[in-house]
Amino acid sequence: MYKKAACFLALLNMLVFAGVFCVTGIRINRIAAMPAFQMRMDISCIADEKTSMIGMAALNASSQRVVKYELLEVEEAAAEKDKEEASEDPMVYQLDEEEYDLLLRIVEAEAGSEDEDGRVMVANVVFNRVNSEQFPDTVSEVVLQQSHGVAQFSPVSSGRIWTVTVSDETVDAVQRALEGEDLSSGALYFAARRYADSESMRWFDEKLTFLFRHGGHEFFL
Questions:
Q1: What share of the chain in percent tops pLDDT 90?
Q2: For a tag on the chain, would you pick the N or C end, based on fewer CB atoms within 10 A?
Q3: What's the pLDDT tens digit per position in 190-216?
Q4: How far apart are CA 6 and CA 4, in angstroms?
Q5: d(CA 208, CA 9)
Q6: pLDDT, tens digit, for every residue of 14-33?
Q7: Which residue has the higher pLDDT, 171 or 74?
Q8: What is the 3-state secondary structure (H, E, C) of the chain?
Q9: Could you tell me the residue ranges of all domains in the chain?
């Protein structure tokens, strides 16, 4: 009977000891596991932070690319607009106010009795001379040019160029010439045979190449 009681007590002690050991082991394992868990948490947080920073950097770079593309598109649109505006400008010849007025006057004085095409041709001859190496480089110099003291255009010699009243038809004709319309076939000279002296017309006929006749003018090269 005594031996049974002793065995029972020994078995009970073993069970208690085993229980205490298991609880202690669980606590030890939990304490040992906490730093690793926290480390994993910290690593996870750092990784998330890095991922977030990389994402923000990528987003920022993407935004910059979008901005650059938009700026490029704006610049291209502005360049295209400038190009269109330039192409819309019909003027081939650009004259200042003084030269424009002088061109109107010489066309009116020389061809005021001609139709509009005839006036365009006289303006063409002036521009042909400006573009030729044989003559001066500006409208004013061409119109007012003298050779051996004699003006190239008779209205300049007579002074009538300064007294004419420019008509709307002459303005329209000069505008056509300024926009590049050329009916002259490259002519550098013209003359009204019925008003010219015979000596002058002999020079035209002998020294120049006849191109065509329009109205009261004959055109030469």
A1: 54
A2: N
A3: 999 998 888 889 999 999 999 999 999
A4: 5
A5: 148
A6: 655 555 444 444 444 554 45
A7: 171
A8: CHHHHHHHHHHHHHHHHHHHHHHHHHHHHHHHHHHHHHHHHHHHHHHHHHHHHHHHHHHHHHHHHHHHHHHHHHHHHHHHHHHHHHHHCCCCCCCCHHHHHHHHHHHHHHHCCCCHHHHHHHHHHHHHHHHCCCCCCCHHHHHHCEECCEECCHHHHHCHHHCCCCCHHHHHHHHHHHCCCCCCCCCCEEECCCCCCHHHHHHHHHHCCEEEEECCEEEEC
A9: 1-89, 97-220
Round to whole Å and give the CA distance between 137 and 216. 28
The three state secondary structure string of 97-162 is HHHHHHHHHHHHHHHCCCCHHHHHHHHHHHHHHHHCCCCCCCHHHHHHCEECCEECCHHHHHCHHH
Structure tokens at 56: 């923000």
Structure token digits, residue 102: 């002088």
| pTM to 2 decimal places | 0.62
Q: Does domain 97-220 have CATH number 3.40.50.150?
A: no
Q: With 70 as the cut, is the pLDDT of residue 39 above it?
A: no
Contact predicate 218/111, CB 8 Å: no
Cβ neighbours of 145 (radius 10 Å): 15
Locate 42 and state its tokens. Answer: 């910290």
Residue 106 near residue 143 (C-beta atoms within 8 A): yes
